[in-house]
Design goal:
Elements (H helix, E strand, L loop, with lengths): L4 E6 L7 H14 L3 E5 L3 H5 L3 E4 L26 H14 L3 E6 L1 H12 L4 E5 L15 H21 L3 E6 L6 H9 L4 E3 L7 H14 L5 E6 L7 H12 L3 E5 L11 H19 L5 E6 L2 E6 H5 L7 H10 L2
Parallel strand pairs: 1-2, 1-4, 4-5, 5-10, 6-8, 6-9, 7-8
Antiparallel strand pairs: 2-3, 10-11
Helix pairs in contact: 1-9, 5-6
The chain binds adenosine-5'-diphosphate and 6-O-phosphono-beta-D-fructofuranose.
């Protein structure tokens, strides 16, 4: 069957660069003679018939914008088979022969379900968490890293002026990629990530006391939100009590998800959007487009979902050795 019309959607937590991916999908498809429709608010748009026509100019002036022009949503009921059947009916109604879905692992599961029910889908990884095992860098991760770095640099200024300890909580869901790499970039004294178990006294308190003896008077500690059993406000009080260093906690929050995408995210998103449409044009579905060792490649969705990725232990060792 030759593809005449495709859909594009963004789903799950948004990330900077999703717009650049949508733009690449739309422009590539139209250049190849394929019509494109935008599905609004992820899978919600597919079950609520919220689908709009897109043309070359619909995606003008979005490459530099954070967020997503197609909006995003979580649609938990999309894991139910009858809801997916309804979506397939809507695809038929709107003439969608395939869909490019931009999001994380949950989004890919939805894409696989639709493919199995006859609507070929291609997944593109978009999340600030970089927690997609098959992919080295997800769209939005680089921008979020730079945002965290910028925010913590500001926190460091005031931390230094007051000889304080700042504990900064960063996003990442259950993964520590954002915290580890941003922590290295800001020179954090301690970095706590979910992949590693800690004893607060030996890792933070003793380390701070050791560096105090060498003349260090202000400290930045980065904590990934996924670290279990840690509340950064309580941690600040504990550190103050144990070390005598006045401490403050900051939860960076959703500022990390916004902002103009970095060069890396714009280029990656553009490459992935282009690649995804090429696959659909060749009648290939059930694939994710990822970056692996600096190359854009594609994998079967299940194969991709079953892959494992882990924090580089050497990077973590370096972080600790040079931050003392
Ligand atoms: P992400 O795509 O970033 O992992 P979510 O986990 O919220 O974010 O997933 C995005 C959406 O994908 C969900 O809101 C839901 O609509 C859909 N989804 C998640 N899991 C499944 C599943 N097992 N089957 C079908 N669709 C799913
Ligand atoms: O997956 C992106 C992310 O920002 C995570 O880092 C965070 O845990 C989560 O989404 C927050 O979700 P919400 O926007 O629903 O608060």
């Amino acid at each position: 069957m030759s593809i005449k019309t495709i859909g594009v959607l963004t789903s799950g937590g948004d990330s900077p660069g999703m717009n650049a991916a949508v733009r690449a999908v739309v422009r590539t498809a139209i250049e190849k003679g394929i019509a494109v429709k935008g599905v609004m608010r992820g899978y919600t748009g597919l079950i609520e018939n919220d689908i709009v026509d897109l043309n070359l100019r619909s995606v003008s002036d979005i490459i530099h914008r954070g967020g997503t022009m197609l909006y995003s949503a979580r649609c938990p009921e999309f894991s139910e088979s009858d809801v997916q059947d309804k979506a397939v009916e809507v695809c038929k109604e709107f003439g969608l022969d395939g869909i490019v879905t931009i999001g994380g692992d949950g989004t890919f599961k939805g894409a696989r379900a639709l493919t199995l029910k006859g609507v070929p889908c291609i997944g593109i990884p978009g999340t600030i968490d970089n927690d997609i095992s098959s992919c080295d860098y997800t769209i939005g991760y680089d921008t979020a890293l730079n945002t965290v770095m910028d925010m913590v640099d500001r926190i460091r200024d005031t931390t230094e002026s007051h000889d304080r300890c700042s504990i900064v909580e960063v996003m990442g869901r259950n993964a520590g990629y954002l915290a580890l790499n941003a922590g290295i970039a800001v020179g954090a004294t301690c970095i706590l990530i979910p992949e590693i178990d800690y004893d607060i006294d030996s890792y933070i308190i003793e380390r701070m006391k050791r560096t105090q003896k060498t003349g260090k008077e202000h400290f930045v500690i980065v904590v990934a939100e996924g670290v279990k059993g840690i509340d950064v406000n309580s941690l600040a009080k504990y550190i103050e009590q144990k070390t005598g260093v006045e401490s403050r906690a900051t939860i960076l929050g959703h500022v990390q998800r916004g902002g103009s995408p970095s060069v890396r995210d714009r280029v990656l998103a553009s490459q992935m959007g282009f690649y995804a449409v090429q696959l659909l044009k060749e009648d290939v579905g059930n694939r994710v487009v990822v970056v692996k060792n600096d190359k854009i490649v594609d994998y079967d969705i299940i194969e991709a979902l079953n892959m494992k990725k882990s924090i580089d232990p050497e990077l973590y060792r370096i972080a600790n050795e040079i931050s003392i």
